[in-house]
Amino acid sequence: MLTTLALVNRITDLYAIVPAGGAGTRLWPLSRAxxxxxxxxxxxxxxxxxxxxxxxLEPLVAGTVVVTGEAHAExxxxxxxxxxxxxxxxEPSPRDSMAAIGLATAVLAQRHGDVLVxxxxxxxxxxxDFAGAVAQAAVAAxxxxxxxxxxxxxxxxxxxxxxxxxxxxGLAEAPDARATRGFTEKPDASTxxxxxxxxxxxxxxxxxxxxxxxxxxxxxxxxxxxxxxxxELARVWDSPQREAAxxxxxxxxxxxxxxxxxxxxxxxxxxxxxxxxxFAWDDLGDFDALAAHLAGEQAGGEQVLAIDSxxxxxxxxxxxxxxxxxxxxxVVQTSDALLVTTRARAQRVKEVVDALRTAxxxxxx
Length: 365
What we know:
By secondary structure, this protein is an alpha/beta fold. The protein folds into two domains: 11-282, Spore Coat Polysaccharide Biosynthesis Protein SpsA, Chain A (Alpha-Beta Complex); 287-364, no CATH class. The chain is 33% helix and 25% strand. The strands form four sheets. A five-stranded mixed β-barrel has the order 6-9-7-8-10, surrounded by four helices. The protein is globular, with a radius of gyration of 21 Å.
């Protein structure tokens, strides 16, 4: 159980990296390639998921950089004017999370030296003692560990990867930090139930904290060509040579997730620690997850008439939507598309995007 830290001061040697990429295809037609979910205010709070992420981090860290695609850089800057021009790192094309996080880490090391870096996704929904978990992760990271924050499972989900926690590290200022025995990709239901029964498994939220030189050192050992590429880019990032270097180096960088490039092999060698995240967390990956967050607020308001229908989710409707005899139905309308599905089949919405792309209807994706 996470030891509560009632008051967490700013962690002055920690810089946040926020990878903001992906199209959120399971939230189509709201989320599109040109306007992905991290730029959207899906919960009706008045702040996009990206803005909420930066709001959450701002009191805790020394600074924040956002890594996003060139197509979204202008929108990111518009939503986060307080970050400054140099805090938005624009990728020419998607190269997966290791290239994005590696580039940001190398740039921060170039600018600030061997600081702590923490990678926090742009589209997670979090409430509770997030600050206490980050503070403990920072303590363990200063000791040379790559640290992940493992989410306390709410049930035997098959939608998330799992982290296997081992022995405690014995750190006075991070009493809940434990060694990581390994990572498991999304398991089947019986395996997930078995994991939960042990009490030693956490959901993998993809949050990583480490000293910059530790992370880059592991990258150099595990993926030397990728390490050299991001290091070379970092050396010229704040100079007029940036664009030429990006054009030459970026397309050749390996596409690989940080989990596969660093977390899994380094955990096998004993170099990864986990801190429990006993806060409310969701990656808001589909309409089932979104409906759970909007439960209790009649989604669609006066535009929805539900008869013998439990928990309909209706979004974007410009006319009355009557739902009769259908439980947990999902209806989403935009100016150019209408989606009708159920919460149970919410994961399959991405198949619509795949089908549209196959049909050459990229304007709808």
